[in-house]
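Re-run with default settings, no changes from the original entry. Doing this only to confirm the output is reproducible before filing.
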Amino acid sequence: MTTLRLGLVRTRYEIIYYFRAMDTVFFTFFFPMMMLAIFSTAFSASEASAGPGAAPVSYAAYYLPGMAASGIFLSGIQNLAVSIAMEKSDGTLKRLGGTPLSPLSYFIGKVLSVLATSAIQLALLILFARLAFDVALPAEPSAWLTLLWVYLLGVAMSCVVGIALSALPRSGRSATAVVVPIVLVLQFISGVYLPFTMLPEWMQAISAAFPLKWLAQGMRAVFLPDDFRVLEAGESWNLPLVALMLTLWIVAGLVIARLTFRWIRKDG
């Protein structure tokens, strides 16, 4: 109970700190909405189609699932990887290691803050797409249940991978330079900014090894008409494989984070 209580106290601190850091809020919280507005406006004169005979959708509707996946990815992986690396470098974690706050309480605070902020971000993104671009939302309850489990698996994956990735930067000063290019490249090859089947087969094979591709595919299954499944590899949403791949990355992230996390750097 003490661990959980301290974790909830840490969650409140993390949320307040997150929204006070305006650069972080801009590049992780509002960035998906900004990109959705840019793509929707740039392609407003045309529509996306799954092929002859399929009903087209606006590009705002087409890019909404990719931006939803990107928002979860940024909130967890980029935000946690950078913030933990900086806290490790500036001595924050070393000082916390001398307090009653356990690593578990610390991570409870990190994970719950990502869960809260990403949920608000996703809700605002969907509302923005609906009000600003008249994007039709799913009418079937099953689609919203799919959204729920894809979102929860996506948050869990992004949190543990973000914690594991925080060990990569050599210092807090280099954290952004190390993490942001990784996230940006994955967005381009995972079907967030470009249709996945437009990519070369070798690039599709590489992206299929990483979690963002599967998170984006799960979101497309929620928000796009079923006709668009033909644009996926195998011409199917393949939601069981989406769940499996995200779960495997959760396990891999937990193992790596367990092996690499320290209150201080070994070379510090």
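The chain has one domain: 2-43+56-260. The chain has a mean pLDDT of 88.
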